[in-house]
Amino acid sequence: MNVNGRHYRTIWLADDGWSVDIIDQTKFPHVFETARLGTPEEAAAAIRDMLVRGAPLIGVTAAYGVALAMKQDASDAALAGAYELLVKTRPTAINLRWALDEMMRVLKPLSEGERAAAAYRRAAEIAEEDVAINQAIGRNGFEIIRSIAARKPPGERVNILTHCNAGWLATVDWGTATAPIYTAHDSGVGVHVWVDETRPRNQGASLTAWELLHHGVPHTVIPDNTGGHLMQHGLVDIAIVGTDRTTAQGDVCNKIGTYLKALAAHDNGVPFYVALPSPTIDFRVVDGIREIPIEQRGGHEVSHMTGRTADGRIETVEITPRGSKVANYAFDVTPARYVTGLITERGVIAANRDAIGEAFPERLAEAQ
Ligand code: MRU
């Protein structure tokens, strides 16, 4: 997508031909800065410290992390070591393990001399596949937005609520939940996006809002607890969120707070869709609530906030009383029964085992 007239992806091969450049997402929304990854350890730190985040982008960064490792040392031990280092960085988003398994599948049978080139090749392919998947999600989700627009009085925008950042910054390009939004906007269908701020790390307020602003999509940032009220007053036509892991039966794990939005949508008859790229399906897991490990992050993210002061300085301030305990669960699970549909690259499907298995039979077979 464009940043000040220049096309960017979130990750690309640096001009030296082997290191990897990323956008440092910890600096948003006030500073746009890139960072360079030259070792698997730097790739792991970028994922762990959330310079890159969002399930699909975490997966692609891990794939490049393996490539960086193979450039240094392409032995079996180094390959296994890179896998172990990277797989431990974040526990919930399944794209991480999917991408690492994919790298192992391709690299393991090769000789040491072949591995580095093959690793860079497969990492680049995974990045390209992500872009193509998101574009297809955009086309499929656009049909839903277009049909809502057709039922609204002429000139009225479709109001879409989204949570966290499932935009192009969470992927290589286009985003998952935002792909239908960008496609609709670019096709001339009027949309307006309610952006949940998404405490504690504010991915909505600092990332989604920044993206939409740069692309010229009308949007309004709202505190996380506003969505239910808006739905009760007919101000939300559809909710579209992303996912970090979706189970074989269609339970959706996503950023903490997604479940509460799904409940509010259910109570108010608002369609609740999940944009789901196939690498985010975990066929080995059925019951999302019981089986998906939920990342718990440091309390500092809850007790402190960072922002820009009136004179332009970036400062972090404490917002809770010292001595109060805080909890920081990063994700929650929305049971499939609250999901109106899954917008995948192969079409919009029901959130149930049969529909998911029918749409992605090869993935189901792999897992069995
Ligand atoms: O903790 P994060 O910022 O990595 O969480 C990201 C989300 O929850 C996104 O909504 C999800 O990864 C889908 S991204 C296309």
Please, could you describe this protein's structure?
There is one protein chain. This protein has 368 residues and is an alpha/beta fold. A hairpin with a 4-residue loop joins strand 10 and strand 11 (252-255). The longest helix is centred in the middle third of the chain and has 40 residues, at 112-151. The chain contains 13 helices and 18 strands. Strands 8-7-6-9-12-17-18 form a 7-stranded mixed β-sheet, sandwiched between helices. Helix 1 packs antiparallel against helix 2 (55-72). It has 2 domains: 2-128, Four Helix Bundle (Hemerythrin (Met), subunit A), CATH 1.20.120; 133-367, Translation initiation factor eif-2b, domain 2 (Rossmann fold, 3-Layer(aba) Sandwich), CATH 3.40.50.10470. Bound molecules: 5-S-methyl-1-O-phosphono-5-thio-D-ribulose (MRU).
Quick gist of this model?
This protein has 368 residues and is of the alpha/beta class. The protein is 42% helix and 18% strand. It has 2 domains: 2-128, translation initiation factor eif-2b, domain 1 (Four Helix Bundle (Hemerythrin (Met), subunit A)), CATH 1.20.120; 133-367, 3-Layer(aba) Sandwich (Rossmann fold), CATH 3.40.50.
